Amino acid sequence: MRSRQLIAVTAALAAGALTLTACGSRDDKGGSGDGGTTVVIGVDAPLTGDLSALGLGIKNSADLAAKQANEKKYVKGVTFKIQALDDQAQASSGQQNATKLTADKDVLGVVGPLNSSVSEAMQKVFDDAKLAQVSPANTSPSLTQGPKWNEGVKNRTYKSYFRTATTDAIQGPFAAQYLFNKAGKKKVFIIDDKKTYGSGLAGTFKGEFTKLGGQVAGEGHIDPESKDFSAIVTQVKSSGADVVYYGGEYPAAGPLSKQIKASGTNIPLVGGDGIYDKKYVELAGEGATGDLATSVGAPVESLPSAKEFVENYKKAGYKDAFAAYGGYSYDSAWSIIEAVKKVVDDNGGKLPTDARAKVLAAVQNVSFEGVTGKVSFDEFGDATNKQLTVYKVEGGDWKSVESGTYGG
Length: 408
Hints:
It contains 13 helices and 14 strands. By secondary structure, the chain is an alpha/beta fold. It is elongated.
């Protein structure tokens, strides 16, 4: 969800995105080499700050998708460009970015954001503009299924919103089943950061863990900005828990794990995709060995469908890793590219004046083999690919342990 030198790069990217009309202006600066139309794909992610390791992977992967579409001349007469904006993992910045992107009529789709809380502030802006938004990382179920999804009342509030990642309605229970049935953990201390993602994930984990017969030894919340977690660590130590489940992201999870181990409590910390990054291992230190994380999909490097993506990412020379959501960001961008192709093909080889609305409708029906497997969306805009993976810290890095789907 995840250097800081990228502010200038981001500005250059934003400045480099040509301002054209939605129906397509001529690209007099070369474009695809045939004087065609330029289509902009917006990207919103934290490009600076604690979560930039994830955000830069999202930006670079979407950029790679656009470059490859251009190289292949995948949509005849169309050149794709990326306009990347930094939300700093802040909802207010995300909303400002959403307004900026919708104001540019050349933007026909947006990849991002990383954080579910940021997406909550962006969805209505995009929906009002009929601008397709495809997140590679948001996992809060309410974004697609409404605030009462956990009560069995599912309602898709915003038809412009899609995601290629699966949701915490699956991820939390998947982790609970692994810990209880495979890892033999029966007594958990649950901690979250009180944010949309963290509290939601912790809640779905707790529901499944207790249903399986697991015991909750204690619960608590932390301020992720603090980095001094001595109070909650003391509670964990006296609780008798054999595992800690944390709902939140790696900037706080790493130090939390380190402080738990320093207290003499040698039990693993487990979290979701928000902690699945090499930065977590660095922050947690040597004591991180044995800590676990779940993340969306299968390990990208292990998928035959992802081999070309990994090779092309390396060849492109990006300074930052594609990280946890690179494959999903690439597929998110490609879902927009596929939709643009459909709209152009259906309109005699050019963009219609109502391109945004038509691209949005086309995204709902995309279906293709992507980096992360089959890419398509259900009636809520959720990914039809429900696979997840458990990772364990071994030898100073994350190693995949088991992949599968939640069997609820």
